[in-house]
Amino acid sequence: MEFLFNTNIQLYLASYLIGGIPFGLLLGKIFAGVDITESGSKSIGATNVLRVIKEKDPVLAKKLGAATLTLDALKGAAVLLVAKLLGVEEATLWGMGVVAILGHCFSPYLKFEGGKGVATGLGVVAVMLPLETLVALSVWLIVGKILKISSVSSLLGLAGMLAASYILHPELPGISSHAPLWIIAIIIFYKHIPNLIRLARGEEKPVL
Fold first, then answer.
1. Burial of 4 (0-12, 13-18, 19+ CB in 10 A)
2. What is the Cα–Cα distance from 177 to 103, expressed in whole angstroms?
């Protein structure tokens, strides 16, 4: 058990446990009396919060969806900002970011089920690569406005972020590798496979 006293292990563990907090589920239960893991896509993310609670109260759904998006992003950003203040090296910061996203997608509080990782990933990349985050957000907003399909806009925003990272940072500062971004992209893509299947079948519903 001595490894638990290693600072990096402690940081990774904290990132995973904080990343795993299911804010969407908690907000839905507390303020709407709804368990979002039993309806819609059963995800704990903002899109499912909006989709499920909208049937009961459209105004409340928008508020809780926005709150979920914000809190999920803060899960990824907060752990990194604190670690930066502690002087943690770049490679460890990226590792923490990846682990926080894993916590959201495979939450220890939900029998390793969870969300899609988009908002938490956004929080991570916002701290590590703010310019790439602006590109991702722009693509997400434009595609979302046109198609109104969250999964498509999220994945295209992710692709935009990856492409921008190679243009703006051919070598990521401190690690000289894009590996963390690819790991994040693979996790988010994997969690969206059910959405892509529904999209292929014409069953993926737009978020209005």
1. exposed
2. 23
Place of tokens 């049937």: 55
pTM score, two decimals? Answer: 0.94
Alpha helices in the chain (DSSP H): 7-19, 23-27, 46-54, 58-85, 90-105, 118-128, 130-147, 150-168, 179-191, 193-201
7: exposed, middle or buried (Cβ count in 10 Å: 0-12, 13-18, 19+): exposed
Q: At what angle do helices 150-168 and 179-191 cross, to 10 degrees?
A: 170
pLDDT digits (tens, 9 = 90+) for 136-163: 999 999 999 998 898 999 999 999 999 9
Neighbour count for residue 154 (Cβ, 10 Å): 28
Nearest one of 98, 66, 68, 104 to 80, comparing CA atoms:
98
DSSP, res 4:
G
The rounded distance, in Å, linking the Cα atoms of 174 and 91 is 7
